[in-house]
Amino acid sequence: MNENENFESLRRLLALKRREIPPPGYFNRFSGEVIARIRAGERESAAAMPWFLKFMQIFEAKPAFASSFAGALCLLLVFGIVYAEQSDQTPQPLLQTSQLSPEPLMASAISATSMPQPSEQNLFASSISNSSPSSLQPLFSQNSFAQPVSFTIPGN
Amino acid sequence: MIMAEPAERTESESPVPEHESELVARARKGDLAAYDELIKRYQERIYATIYHMTSNHEDANDLAQEAFLKAFQALKSFKGGSSFYTWLYRIAVNKTINFLKQRKNRQHMSLNDIDFQAEHDPDLVALVSEKTPRRDAGLAELQEKLNAALLKLSEPHRLVVVLHDVQGQSHEEIAKVVGCNIGTVRSRLFYARQQLQGYLADYLK
Question: Which residue of B has its CA nearest to A17?
């Protein structure tokens, strides 16, 4: 006698469970209710979604758009780097002219600071403070003026 | 009642049922009509399993809806390693077991009506009129005792009995749904039946 025969009466009793049926028309409505809940959930999530998530959803739906957007970003980055390097190089002609004679540099320093009748020392100070560190070195190497300074300390 | 022979139908009137994988693929893209078709295919089996586990129609309705909802949301993660049906079943079973763990101390039965034809089922008639010591026990009383006995089982044991003896699934199918080996399914089934026999001894003599 196998295990099924041992439990035959129980199995027949359990068959009663198969006879339990939900209210009439229940399964006709069921799928419609689930679909309605899915739609409601989608509407809610779309309303509550931050703008950047909505933006990211465009990429999920269209991978080609995502890759072209990434390509455009890369191009923009490269262009930015090239442009930044070019703009770094533009002060050089100014340096070269200042190396030849100090007068044009002074003139430009005067116009930059717009100080009325500045002294020679003030001009230097303003040109040093306004110029970039890279343009200071050739200035000092060729036109370095040393002026002795004497400090009088009170009480000595 | 014998139905009249239906008139010959054209192909457009009786579309060939779409394959499950095609419906799943369409549903994954957000096609709700395809998902509606999938729901209609499996709603009765999913609902019945949950109902037999909870013995409560309202809970079974909520859990079945939530299972289909969760399945739709998780459809993108469905790799197709198992059939959609097995995957859906697993979601429904996990949801039900989690729910039963939470409501452990407040079990309330809300039983469905018994099919009218059950009164003519010879097996059930025999159980009520001959095997039952209390001859006045009707089907409704038997149904209540049976459900109460099932609720006394632990969830893993109840699940195996429901899937095998009520739903008629094979040991292999149950092992896939539950996520254990066939030996475990067999041993759980044996233990659960023994327990039930003890609880329902009065109705099985």
Answer: B166
